[in-house]
């Protein structure tokens, strides 16, 4: 054991040690938020109250009057504390039940949203399989959603304390604890990252369409570089569909997702394709210029040509000239839809397991009378 007492350096180190411990301890206290846990009247539920600016918290010993101790507890402060401890156990059980109920509600909401999207994608799959090519293709792309962590707040280390109202000086017992939170996986249908991505796609579309219009006005045609830009945009759309957005039929969108259009910045990408035809009423095909083919091969887009001449409406912007890889786009759209269905069904199984576990914990707590004694 190290001794500090008999030397000046020892006294300094001892003082430094005490000061350090005090600083760490004081910092930990400063970062703790004290809250009250309040039972909902006549219900096995409890909520936390964060704003304690109008009250003063002190030890439980300060609360009972001499008359209360004498009348109900034979003047025994320990008997008084023991009785209050039982009340704390009850409120803690009610708080845990409330927390479990909130988590169950979030999981049930997640499952409802997942099931809705599975149903929608199955309709999209039927629609895409009915098409022979891209002519007349119309759908809306909405965020695919993400599993994120949601925090549920509650109080830990709870104890019965004396709560004095500053304005009146009135004292009452109250359950007090330290604010903390518990993480829960849930399905967020509108993650910020995907909403931002939708706005980015819309902005990029405006740039490319402006470039196309200017080239047509200045040169009467579009350059190889612009053709590549359009092909790039087509490939980017496919990547979005594969990860961050899901294709929804027009009818299904109107029935189940129309509320998205009421948002300040709707995270929705409209897609419409119509073929341009020649004098014989047949679709127009274009061979890709050699330079563009080499670049596309380098970028590994798998586009070899020919490309179909079409009018593309994307995110509310109409491309006056568009060459699209019809079979590649259609094949990938079908595959993407199937992959999203598989992904969401797997998520559904995971959330159903979580739901079952939470429901069992709540049933056990209820059957044990919320641990009240």
What does this structure look like?
Helices cover 51% and strands 23% of the residues. The protein is α+β, with helices and mostly antiparallel strands. It has a domain at 123-143 and 190-342. Strands 4, 7, 8, 9, 10 and 11 form a 6-stranded antiparallel sheet that branches. It has a 5-stranded antiparallel sheet with strand order 2-1-6-5-3, covered by helices on one side. Helix 3 (77-129) packs antiparallel against helix 8 (326-367), helix 4 packs antiparallel against helix 5 (224-243) and helix 5 runs parallel beside helix 7 (290-298). The radius of gyration is 33 Å and the shape is elongated. Residues 1-30 have low confidence and may be disordered.
Q: How many alpha or pi helices?
A: 8
Largest sheet: 6 strands, antiparallel
Q: What is the string of helix and strand elements? A: HEEEHHEEEHHEHEEHEEH
Count of individual beta strands = 11
Task: Describe the structure concisely for a colleague.
The chain has helices spanning 8-30, 66-73, 77-129, 192-219, 224-243, 250-256, 290-298, 326-367; strands at residues 34-39, 46-49, 55-58, 138-143, 146-165, 171-188, 245-248, 269-275, 285-286, 307-314, 317-324. It is an alpha+beta fold.
Question: Mind sketching the topology for me?
Answer:
Elements: H1 8-30, E1 34-39, E2 46-49, E3 55-58, H2 66-73, H3 77-129, E4 138-143, E5 146-165, E6 171-188, H4 192-219, H5 224-243, E7 245-248, H6 250-256, E8 269-275, E9 285-286, H7 290-298, E10 307-314, E11 317-324, H8 326-367
Antiparallel strand pairs: 1-2, 1-6, 3-5, 4-7, 4-8, 5-6, 8-10, 9-10, 10-11
Helix pairs in contact: 3-8, 4-5, 5-7, 5-8
């Amino acid at each position: 054991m190290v001794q500090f007492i008999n030397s000046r350096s020892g006294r300094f180190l001892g003082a430094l040690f005490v000061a350090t411990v005090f600083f760490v301890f004081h910092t930990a206290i400063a970062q703790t938020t004290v809250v009250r846990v309040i039972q909902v009247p006549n219900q096995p539920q409890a909520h936390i109250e964060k704003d304690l600016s109008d009250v003063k918290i002190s030890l439980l010993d300060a609360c009972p009057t001499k008359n209360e101790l004498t009348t109900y507890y034979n003047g025994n402060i320990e008997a008084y504390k023991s009785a209050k401890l039982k009340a704390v156990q009850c409120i803690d059980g009610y708080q845990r039940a409330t927390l479990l109920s909130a988590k169950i509600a979030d999981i049930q909401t997640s499952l409802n949203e997942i099931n809705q999207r599975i149903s929608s994608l199955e309709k999209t799959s039927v629609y895409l399989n009915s098409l022979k090519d891209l002519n007349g293709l119309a759908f809306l792309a909405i965020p695919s959603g993400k599993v994120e962590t949601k925090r549920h707040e509650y109080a830990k280390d709870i104890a019965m304390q004396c709560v004095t109202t500053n304005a009146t000086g009135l004292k009452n017992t109250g359950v007090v604890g330290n604010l903390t939170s518990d993480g829960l996986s849930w399905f967020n249908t509108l993650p910020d990252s995907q909403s931002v991505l939708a706005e980015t796609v819309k902005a990029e579309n405006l740039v490319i369409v402006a470039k196309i219009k200017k080239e047509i006005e200045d040169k009467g045609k579009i350059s190889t570089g612009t053709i590549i830009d359009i092909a790039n945009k087509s490939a980017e759309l496919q990547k979005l569909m594969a990860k961050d957005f899901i294709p929804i039929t027009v009818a299904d969108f109107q029935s189940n997702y129309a509320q998205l259009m009421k948002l300040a910045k709707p995270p929705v990408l409209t897609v419409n394709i119509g073929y341009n035809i020649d004098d014989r009423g047949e679709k127009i095909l274009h061979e890709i210029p050699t330079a563009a083919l080499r670049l596309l091969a380098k970028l590994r887009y798998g586009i070899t040509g020919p490309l179909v001449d079409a009018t593309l409406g994307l995110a509310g912007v109409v491309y006056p000239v568009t060459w699209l890889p019809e079979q590649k786009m259609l094949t990938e759209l079908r595959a993407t839809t199937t992959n999203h269905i598989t992904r969401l069904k797997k998520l559904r199984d995971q959330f159903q397991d979580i739901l079952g576990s939470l429901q069992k914990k709540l049933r056990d707590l209820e059957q044990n009378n919320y641990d009240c004694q």
